[in-house]
Amino acid sequence: MRLDIQTARQAKQKLTADQQQALVGKDKKIPATLTVGEWHDLLVKISGDELTVTVDGQLMGTLKSPGIAHPTKKMLRLAVPRNAVVDDVKIWRKS
Fold first, then answer.
1. Which of 35-39, 47-51, 70-74, 86-90 has the lowest average pLDDT?
2. Which residues is 54 bridged to in the sheet?
3. Domain annotation covers residue 65
4. Is residue 84 domain-resident?
5. Which neighbouring-strand residues pair with 36?
């Protein structure tokens, strides 16, 4: 984790070219068409430096990045273009 990037983002400062370069390949957008008005099962699994996303049992995508398994990682963000209702959330750590 780059503390300088986190600090700049919190201060709403523009990232330097070096900071922007450090973030290349660290995010991924996976378009998905889901039926509105129906519940869906979302599974997000983090194993080592790989994140895997499954919706209704179907693999949607993976992302491999060293920062994913960072020991101080504390946020998982779900971004949707409009509104979403989230219910029955379970988070656990595999021992």
1. 70-74
2. 43, 59
3. yes
4. no
5. none
Residue 33 belongs to domain spanning? 3-69
Own/partner long-range contacts of 29-37 (Cβ < 8 Å, ≥24 apart): 30/60, 30/61, 32/60
Number of domains the chain is built from: 1
Contact between 78 and 86 under an 8 Å Cβ cutoff? The reply is yes
Q: Is the pTM of this model over 0.90?
A: no
Whether 88 maps to a domain, the answer reads no
Higher pLDDT, 82 or 16: 16
In degrees, rounded to 5, the angle at the alpha carbon of residue 6 between the alpha carbons of residues 13 and 15 is 35
Q: Which of 45, 75, 43 is nearest to 57 (CA)?
A: 43
